[in-house]
Design a protein that fits this description.
The structure is a single chain. This protein is of the alpha+beta class and about 130 residues long. It has a single domain, classed as Aspartate Aminotransferase, domain 1, CATH 3.90.1150. It contains 3 helices and 6 strands. The protein has helices spanning about 10-20, 75-85, 110-130, and strands at about 30-35, 45-55, 55-65, 65-70, 90-95, 100-105. It is globular.
Length: about 130
């Protein structure tokens, strides 16, 4: 049996954008912004697009030759917990404010990162109720 794995970072990022923009009502508050349709993957990661909630950037998606990387700009603890529960590789980024990095190493893992985006949306809903 042959198992095909999608490990092209640019294509993985495209699949994620598709999931975020058209398949779940949960993500209605999110939009893909500043997309670079001509982005070429680099070893360090090239910015493919950002994800916004209203006017606020909440994540950035970078492409590398063999994977994509999501940098969650807000609610780093919530998104880290959700991504870790899906067995994705997660690490903090020590910047101010802190970020959470989530690595998507094949096309199937695109579905695995969606709970992190759901947790992000839920955190924003909680923030709005607390205001």
């Amino acid at each position: 049996m042959v198992v095909d794995r999608l490990t092209d970072g640019k294509r993985i990022a495209q699949l994620l954008a598709s999931e975020l923009t058209g398949h779940e009502e949960t993500f209605a508050m999110l939009s893909v912004v500043d997309a670079d349709t001509d982005v070429e993957p680099t070893d360090d990661g090239a910015l493919a697009y950002a994800v916004a909630a209203g006017d606020e950037r909440v994540a950035e998606v970078y492409v590398q030759p063999d994977r994509a990387r999501v940098e969650f700009l807000t609610h780093p603890d919530v998104t880290a917990d959700a991504a870790s529960e899906q067995n994705l590789r997660v690490r903090p980024k020590a910047v101010h404010p802190p970020r959470t990095l989530v690595f998507i190493e094949d096309g199937a893992q695109v579905k695995w990162v969606l709970p992190a985006f759901r947790a992000l949306v839920a955190a924003f809903d909680t923030d709005e109720r607390d205001d």
